[in-house]
């Protein structure tokens, strides 16, 4: 492109220099002939370049080609006149045809807003008009400034008819308006793929035209222009031809500060207007009267400023509407569940809080029964459709004034703040509605739910969270009594089936001394099949609630996970296990590994690494003796970041185990993503003695995969010698189960009494002890 530009400049310079060598009488004929040739060539280049393009890229090239063709035609007419009437006037009526080129240029530039939209476009049409007003405003102000500073005797107009002076002035003014427009586009419009190059070249062409047109205006009475004076009329068409053949600049344009450009867009037109106003004020102050032309420009400027303001107001109104629409959308997103469109937890809490102080309310808390099965069997897309269908049914069961929300996963809640007395009926309607099978994609699916019901109590004012916890407790007790039912909250101190476990658990753990609130740690041995040696123990939490009595670990762990309390249990067990490791080493006669359970949810929370490092540092247990079992009761959402946490823990020398492998979510995906050392094969997969073919094949496959990955396999649920034997035969090195010992407190730990002859010595794999 640069080479082309140089060649063009050299040719124009050469033709101009050649003209200067000719006698002045021959200048007119020479320059008219040269301009005809250049104009015709440029027109055909533009039209040819348009042919290979489409859309806007084609349109502006066609417009330029037509404008240049009209321009060349007038040159031809001039040439004929030059030959037939050697003394013709400098300007003629036919010159009006020259306006075709600026008109085409204007149309081409007005299309530019489509390719170069404003940073915050509101309407393409308004954008075009605003661009035109801005250009005329700036050009008019510049004109007024120039007019007030340039001495009148510069203009050689004597004897020229006013019409011709006006026509000649109009070319220069049109050039000024168009150059301003190009300047504005280059300054305030973000770059587009079309690139800035053609626009910049077009601007240069306009400048070239403008210089020669201005010289012509100044020397109107001096006869034909010298070749150097009219060189702009050669350079202009040549630069336009270059613009037409230029290719869009490659690569993305540099990022622009859009806010800054929008300011520029708003302020730029007023800078020259202000300057002109000041100049007029200074002149008037100095006693210089305004010329009619200046007064006319002043009024024009005023009218345009008013029009521009109107456009800005319309633009601002449109933008304000968009902002408030955006805010409405954001508000909806923040308070609604994107999958079902129901209210989310935040909106539910907000409305519950508002209603609690003002009127009686009831809350129904529904948790779907075994929804995991649907996800696991039919995939998540199907799970999502079922959730949407459930949301629709729930809404049909309540009155329009009551609020249905999806609190997360498969948990829904209904706030009955208008019809609290009918809560039980509504709950029954929901249970009945959900009992109806769902037919989705030709499949018939059954989804039940367990519902907890709680009503606000005037005697005991409660927060929204406390009421939700009670609803959750009631739901949980309904689950324990058999799924698909509804239970009403029966009070915090009810130690029976309806005990408010979330409340009791929170009380026990928030005291900071779980041991004093009934928490204990039991240990269960993990044994090597070849010789029956205990190579490790698993630390397991036990809780005997002072109110509800002994609570099964499956129950309190899952309640703790739901209520965000599981970290406190994990940390208590971790600390106690690290303390007890020394005593266990004495029981077993040598140091053994300590397995500690960690809820998978903690991999996505902070604090796990600090807890583990703190426990090791406090107790002096070597990191190599600690195994963290990742217990997956909730899906690990972000496997890559969980893998990073696992990797950091391993860097201490700690080993990581995948617990209950084969029973949770996406076992193979986890094995693929998480860098684990040990896999604990779930008891449901280890019944190789009961179903030797299926279970055997599964265990063999898992063992092969794990051996290939350098992962040790621990078989869970070893209850009989036959199962231990069968797994050892398959090549599994270690196992855990009632056969080797029940979980028991530290003081009841003793080495297992399993005769090693039961186990074949063929399973060669060994664990470090
Ligand atoms: P888990 O980590 O898979 O623990 C093994 C469970 O299997 C224990 O149940 C244990 O008593 C049981 N078990 C051991 N041998 C046999 C057997 O031969 N047959 C059968 N049927 N079961 C056997 P437990 O103690 O009831 O714990 C249940 C679950 O609670 C644990 O499963 C673990 O997921 C969770 N858990 C226990 N303590 C903690 C803890 O401190 N933190 C976390 N996050 N979870 C824990
Ligand atoms: Mg475990
Ligand atoms: Mg397990």
Describe this structure as you would to a colleague.
- The protein is α/β, with parallel strands linked by helices and 769 residues long.
- The chain has 3 domains: 114-190 and 256-332, no CATH class; 345-499, Alpha-Beta Plaits; 519-763, EAL domain (TIM Barrel), CATH 3.20.20.450.
- It is 55% helix and 12% strand.
- The chain is built from 24 helices and 16 strands.
- The chain has helices spanning 2-21, 27-51, 55-84, 100-115, 124-149, 162-188, 197-218, 232-245, 258-267, 270-285, 292-335, 345-358, 371-378, 380-397, 423-435, 464-480, 501-510, 553-562, 566-588, 608-619, 639-650, 667-673, 692-709, 721-730; strands at residues 362-369, 403-408, 411-416, 438-440, 443-445, 448-455, 486-488, 519-528, 534-545, 549-551, 593-599, 626-631, 655-661, 678-681, 712-715, 734-736.
- It has an 8-stranded mixed barrel with strand order 8-9-11-12-13-14-15-16, surrounded by 7 helices.
- Strand 12 (626-631), helix 21 (639-650) and strand 13 (655-661) form a beta-alpha-beta unit.
- It is elongated.
- The chain starts with a helix and ends in a 33-residue tail after the last strand.
- 39% of the residues are buried.
- Bound molecules: ligand C2E and magnesium ion (2 copies).
- Residues 659-660, 680, 716 line the site of one magnesium ion.
């Amino acid at each position: 492109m640069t080479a082309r530009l140089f060649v063009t400049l050299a040719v124009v310079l050469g033709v101009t220099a050649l003209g200067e060598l000719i006698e002045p009488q021959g200048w007119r004929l020479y320059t008219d002939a040269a301009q005809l040739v250049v104009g015709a060539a440029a027109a055909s280049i533009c039209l040819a370049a348009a042919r290979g393009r489409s859309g806007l890229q084609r349109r502006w090239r066609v417009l330029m080609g037509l404008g240049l063709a009209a321009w060349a035609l007038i040159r031809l007419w001039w040439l004929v006149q030059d030959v037939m009437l050697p003394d013709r006037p400098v300007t003629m009526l036919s010159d009006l045809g020259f306006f075709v080129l600026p008109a085409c240029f204007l149309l081409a530039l007005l299309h530019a807003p489509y390719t170069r939209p404003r940073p915050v476009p509101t309407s393409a049409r308004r954008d075009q008009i605003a661009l035109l007003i801005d250009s005329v405003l700036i050009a008019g102000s510049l004109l007024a400034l120039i007019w007030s500073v340039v001495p009148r005797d510069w203009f050689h107009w004597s004897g020229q008819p006013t019409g011709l002076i006006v026509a000649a002035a109009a070319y220069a003014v049109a050039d000024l308006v168009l150059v301003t427009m190009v300047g504005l586009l280059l300054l305030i419009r973000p770059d587009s793929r079309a690139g800035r190059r053609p626009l910049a070249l077009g601007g240069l062409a306009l400048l070239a035209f403008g210089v020669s047109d201005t010289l012509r205006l100044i020397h109107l009475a001096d006869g034909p222009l010298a070749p150097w004076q009219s060189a702009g009329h050669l350079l202009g068409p040549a630069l336009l031809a270059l613009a037409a053949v230029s290719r869009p600049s490659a690569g993305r344009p540099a990022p622009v500060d859009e806010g800054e450009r929008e300011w520029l867009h708003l302020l730029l037109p007023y800078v020259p207007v202000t300057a002109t106003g000041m100049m007029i004020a200074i002149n008037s102050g100095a006693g210089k009267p305004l010329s009619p032309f200046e007064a006319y420009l002043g009024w024009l400027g005023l009218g345009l400023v008013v029009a521009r303001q109107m456009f800005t107001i319309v633009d601002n109104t449109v933008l304000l509407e968009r902002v408030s629409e955006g805010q409405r959308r954001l508000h909806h997103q923040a308070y609604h569940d994107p999958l079902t469109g129901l209210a989310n937890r935040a909106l539910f809490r907000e409305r519950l809080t508002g209603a609690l102080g003002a009127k009686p309310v009831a809350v129904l808390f529904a948790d779907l029964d075994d929804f995991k099965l649907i996800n696991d069997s039919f995939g998540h897309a199907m799970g999502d459709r079922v959730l949407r269908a459930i949301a629709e049914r729930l809404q049909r069961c309540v009155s329009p004034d009551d609020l249905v929300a999806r609190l997360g996963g498969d948990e829904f809640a209904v706030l009955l703040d208008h019809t609290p007395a009918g809560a039980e009926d509504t709950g029954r309607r929901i249970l009945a509605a959900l009992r109806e099978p769902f037919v989705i994609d030709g499949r018939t699916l059954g989804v039940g739910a367990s519902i907890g019901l709680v009503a606000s109590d005037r005697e005991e004012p409660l927060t929204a969270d406390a009421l939700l916890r009670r609803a959750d407790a009631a739901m949980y007790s309904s689950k324990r009594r058999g799924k698909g039912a509804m239970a009403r909250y029966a009070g915090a101190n009810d130690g029976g089936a309806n005990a408010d476990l979330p409340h009791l658990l929170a009380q026990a753990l928030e005291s900071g001394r779980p041991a004093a609130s009934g928490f204990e740690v039991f240990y269960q041995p993990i044994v090597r099949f070849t010789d029956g040696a205990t190579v490790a123990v698993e630390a397991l939490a036990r809780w005997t609630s002072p109110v509800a009595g002994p609570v099964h670990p499956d129950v309190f762990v899952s309640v703790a996970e739901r209520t965000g309390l599981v970290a406190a249990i994990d940390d208590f067990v971790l600390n106690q296990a690290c303390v007890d490791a020394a005593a266990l080493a004495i029981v077993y006669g040598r140091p053994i590994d300590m397995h500690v359970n960690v809820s998978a949810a903690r991999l996505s929370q902070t604090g796990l690494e600090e807890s583990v490092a703190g426990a090791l540092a406090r107790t002096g247990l070597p990191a190599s003796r600690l195994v963290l079992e990742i217990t997956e009761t909730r899906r690990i959402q972000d496997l890559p970041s969980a893998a990073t946490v696992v990797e950091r823990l391993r860097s201490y020398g700690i080993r990581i185990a995948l617990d209950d492998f084969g029973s949770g979510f996406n076992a193979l995906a986890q094995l693929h993503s998480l860098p684990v050392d040990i896999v604990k094969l779930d008891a449901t997969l280890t019944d190789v003695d009961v179903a030797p073919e299926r279970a055997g094949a599964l265990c063999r496959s898992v063992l092969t995969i794990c051996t290939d990955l350098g992962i040790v396999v621990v078989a869970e649920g070893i209850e009989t010698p036959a199962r231990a034997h069968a797994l050892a035969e398959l090549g599994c090195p270690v196992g855990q189960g009632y056969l080797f010992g029940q979980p028991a407190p530290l003081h009841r730990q003793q080495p297992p009494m399993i005769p090693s002859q039961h186990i074949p010595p063929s399973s060669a794999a060994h664990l470090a002890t």
